[in-house]
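QUALITY CONTROL LOG
STEP: pairwise intake check
CHECKER ROLE: data steward
CRITERIA: each record must contain a sequence immediately followed by its structure tokens, with no blank fields

ENTRY 1 OF 2
RESULT FIELD BELOW
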Amino acid sequence: MLFKKYIPLNKKEPESPAPQTAETPVVETVTCKSCKKELDKKRVVKNKYVCYECGYYFRVRSKNRIKMVADAGTFEAWDEDLKTGNPLNFPEYEEKVAATQEKTGLKEGVTIGKCTVNGEETVLGVIDARFMMGSMGHVVGEKITHAVERATEERLPVILFCCSGGARMQEGMISLMQMAKTSAAIKRHSDAGLLYVPVLTDPTTGGVTASFAMLGDIILAEPKALIGFAGARVIENTIGQKLPEGFQRAEFQLEHGFVDAIVERDNLKQTLAQILKMHKPLQGYANFDPAHDNDRYDPTELMRERNAKAKPLSAWEKVCAARQIKRLASVDYMDAVFDDFMELHGDRYFRDDPAIVGGIAYLDGQPVTVIGVHKGKDLKDCAYRNYGMPSPEGYRKALRLMKQAEKFHRPIITFVNTSGAYPGTEAEENGQGEAIARNLYEMSGIKVPILCLMIGEGGSGGALALAVGNQVWMMENATYSILSPEGFSSILWKDGSRAQEAAGVMKITAQDLKDLAIVDDIIPEYGGADEDALSSIANYMKGHMKEFLRAQNNKSGEQLAQERYDRFRKF
């Protein structure tokens, strides 16, 4: 960021600047690299170093970043006495380090220590691009590694703002070794059940991207930040490939499944504080807010009357009801049942599948992981979400969130509404069968409670991949089947027109499946799963979810996994 003095011109003599007087204020300005406009520095600082004309994100110095995130006066720097050596005896390296130290006032490229964020204690690190482009030399690697080790000993979470050009060339292979060293420390921190959140800022590239920057439990990014392994210049010079606009930007990484969320700088502190609070260690699975102990979860009398007057539906009519686009979706229940839902994106391998929506929320104060299949709310939304037919990356995203829930001792609640897994060629190419099988395999052994709700269509293995639960509940007009009635009649009877008849013999309704012990509870719809009934259905769900979690509260992880195994073993 280049600052300069701007002195207003004297209108009577425009060719010469006015003399400085007490009445002539001096305005510091900065030029935006994006829109090229001269900006008032004070306004830029007040706007958290974001251009108020075009929204461009300036790079932030470490001391300013700490001020923006840490509670005032709480930051305690660690390992400031470490000195940078010259392991390769690289010519003029020591002089360059000394000059950079004098120019920036920094001792090295990362500042790291302990602080609180909205009262939540954490280790906080910030890499500063002014120090040799934030490159990872041996002192940077050592400071990060030692801080993570201390965090593990003190059982603290770690937040690390990444901003780097990658490895430090002047340190050669010693720099490369920092990638393995920092990654190993983060593995031990993770194995201890502790939270790590990297925040990717512009730029995050090279060896930093290929080590600690991409190893977070939750990975955040700032808008339009450059994030990638090989930079554009390296790609173009090495293989001659011209990169498309937006390639390797934060939005590209979100779409391709590598970051959980892009967070505006103005919301960053609050988002980090919320994440820290949601990951505080708790005992058991029923840490409900006492303020809600006396809440009543019974439906209103109006809804009782509506339900009593509702005409019972045939099996085929339930198939049609479950397929209605106006039917309440998983996201409706997420909003109505839970508080502070934070959506997390991506499978970390290939893509973010919008057919699967998942994240963290509170159930009356108890943190839970919530995952749902979402068909869409209108035709455009349905097309975007592939009509609720998950691809392999959707199942892998769901499994990533479930394994994360297991690590942090959070119950898992899933909402299932899908005609089935996506059968397209790209799904087969990316391993649809393996992704479904992997979910069944892993869900069977997860050591936290899993509750699964069938809220619409439950189509074959594509639905089962999110329904291996300790209990499975089902909406009264939902369906759950090995195949669609149309497919069933076409295969068995060679006559697709007998779909209505097939629906009756397939035993796919909630009552049928409760009789078969495939589902444990039937959720009333109060005359139809529509907006009018949402409050009553959500209240029923919330009350029964709390009862379910209280019943699991004192069970060990091994007991929960064994009970889930036994549930499916009996079939």
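ENTRY 2 OF 2
RESULT FIELD BELOW
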Amino acid sequence: MAHYYFENTPHGKRKDGSKLDTGKHYDYISREADYANMKNRQEDLKLTSFGNLPDWADTPRDFWQKAEEYRNKPNGRAYREFKFALQEELSFEENIQCIEKFLKETGIKDNHAYSYAVHDKPAAFAKEHRNIHCHLMFNEKIIEKDRPLAADMYFKNYAQNKLGEPVKGYRSSREFSTTASTVKLRKLYADIVNDKFREKGLNISISEKSLKAQRQELLEQGKVEEAELLNRMPAPHLGDAYKNPAVMERIMTEIDETDAKADEAADGFMEQEKDEDLSIQELKIKLFANDVVIRQVARQLQQERARLKKEQQAEKARIEAEELQHEAMVITTGDVCEYLDTKITEFDKKAAEKLAAFKAAQKNVLDDKRLELLAKDKMFDGNYSKDMRQYSTINKELNRVKIVLPTLYGQKDKLQELAALSRKNNELTKKRNEIGKRIGSYKTELTNNTERYNAILSKLKKQNEEAIIKNKALYSRYKYDMLQTQKYKSVQKKLSKEQADTILFSEKIASQLGHKNKLNGTTFIKDLPFAVNNNNIYFFTEQKNNIVKAVKIGDDIVKGKVPVYYLKVENANIKSVSKSDEMACLYARKNRTVSMKNLHPIMQEAYKKRHQSVADKVAKIANNLVNDNMQQVKAKWQENEQTTDKTKLAEKKMYNEWSL
């Protein structure tokens, strides 16, 4: 059960009033050193964290030990501690988010050295619940990040020289020491937690206010039972007494007795008990036990209220879901055109993908000449085409050299150029002859080993035929998608000539206007303002000055619409009525978008089914229209087909025998 606890302690004290050792207190909350393996404790350390440690402190423990060493003993204050309850309704991560937000909003995150620890243990008097809480220690010195100080100066009182320059220490914050600041901090933490509850959609909250103030608020909300549970004395703090096994047993016994007496009181059998002979300790235990029982009752009330509210919400959602199921369904030309747009885009995309796949696969289709060249390459490890290309290149270069050489003969100033070109001619000739010999050996091998060559060529031709068949299928699918696009476009073109709100299909629309019809598919007629004139009931749809637009109960509904009347109204009385040429729609012109975020799961499912039902009906109508026109559209497509794509032009001859 959500509960509130927040304590602001300026350096903890022992029972004798002396201040706790800062380092040892850090060890205690962080379960380090002597407290690493405490016996007889059910408490578990879940997390430690820290921030803004100076360079001279490698760990938080280093920092707090130095804080203790340099504090003004015996009255110096080395730390302030906030101890506050975390919430079992939140996840561990969500509780940490609350802590971090609190650190940020108080300024501790940015301005103070701090460390905190999260403890989690079973609640002492309700084992089914958790006692999750945080110990936050921070030093009240306000860090100046541009003026780092060593440990011996860090904790000194702030001081300036005659020029107003700081010479030692940091200023200490005064923001957390007053009663007003504690009130403010308590509210801040409550607000942070309640924001997280709302974020999760939980109908619970905590309050930093007194029992009296909380009781008054509950009374104002009409929650009398919960208010009476707060009409009590606050539970006394038992300190560490409950950790004593004997005291714990006495407390648990008192809780059981108080619970039993509460049952007897409910049955009218309880006798009044006198408390004057009880010791202060016994009185505290009684008050504490009474508080525990009352909290248990409050928890049960809260759970019961939550259960009833959940049932009411579910029942309301079921009724609304049933109403939604019986709402009129209207499909217009606009709805169908939107669907056709979607299908056109879908088939356009498919066609583009198929065409790209066809073009990519087309590279695998070879003519006879390329097949023969590839077969020779495979026979000679790829060297045949390489040598043939090289031979052709060298031959062309030699021809150019032979054309230039004769022009240089007999020219003294061209002797060097002639010599260089002659050397090049000899080199090219030698290289061509070498390649020519290899080509000659290839031809000899082809002549002597025709069987091997034909086997390679036959295998390549078979692969090529398979690639052609695959390409035909790809091209066929591309043409099919293009045909589908044209079919949908043809129907869309015809429908676009009609008004967008022309009804193509309607279901569950009444023949006459009644209170349960919806204006524009959204607003119940019964929820509109109305007036009576000559036994006719007019519901107002729009009002400007004294002229009101209205619809009349009982009018015939034609194609999902009813006539609109102009009323002249004075002092809430209808003075005149005239029928206009306008018509009011009783259906949504477009499918309205409903935010599912805050809807009950039952309504979410109902809207999903409704949307799916409408979408299925639109698709069925659209596809019927397309299929009815299929033969005409197909014939027109085949008759007027114009192939403009370069790939299609190149392959038109190859594929002219295909038919779709």
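INTAKE CHECK: passed for both entries
DESCRIPTIVE NOTE, ENTRY 2: Confidence is low (pLDDT under 50) at residues 262-272, 630-660.
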